[in-house]
Amino acid sequence: MQTPLDSSSVDVAVFCLSLMGINFPSYLQEANRVLKPRGWLLIAEVKSRFDPNTGDN
């Protein structure tokens, strides 16, 4: 997946409930591509999605 954004063009990316799909690694790769060096990736996910014992989904 590739957005129309230029590489290293974004200061902050926010993912809100967007990592629920099975293709979430490609979303993270795209965030890495568009974020400027030292850019921020903020993630808001549902706590209940993760195993409370391990933190895994």
Automatic annotation (TrEMBL):
<comment type="function">
    <text>Probable methyltransferase required to silence rDNA.</text>
</comment>
<keyword id="KW-0489">Methyltransferase</keyword>
<dbReference type="GO" id="GO:0005730">
    <property type="term" value="C:nucleolus"/>
</dbReference>
<dbReference type="InterPro" id="IPR007823">
    <property type="entry name" value="RRP8"/>
</dbReference>
<keyword id="KW-0539">Nucleus</keyword>
<keyword id="KW-0698">rRNA processing</keyword>
<dbReference type="Pfam" id="PF05148">
    <property type="entry name" value="Methyltransf_8"/>
</dbReference>
<comment type="similarity">
    <text>Belongs to the methyltransferase superfamily. RRP8 family.</text>
</comment>
<keyword id="KW-0808">Transferase</keyword>
<dbReference type="GO" id="GO:0008168">
    <property type="term" value="F:methyltransferase activity"/>
</dbReference>
<keyword id="KW-0949">S-adenosyl-L-methionine</keyword>
<protein>
    <recommendedName>
        <fullName>Ribosomal RNA-processing protein 8</fullName>
        <ecNumber>2.1.1.-</ecNumber>
    </recommendedName>
</protein>
<dbReference type="InterPro" id="IPR029063">
    <property type="entry name" value="SAM-dependent_MTases_sf"/>
</dbReference>
<dbReference type="GO" id="GO:0006364">
    <property type="term" value="P:rRNA processing"/>
</dbReference>
<dbReference type="GO" id="GO:0032259">
    <property type="term" value="P:methylation"/>
</dbReference>
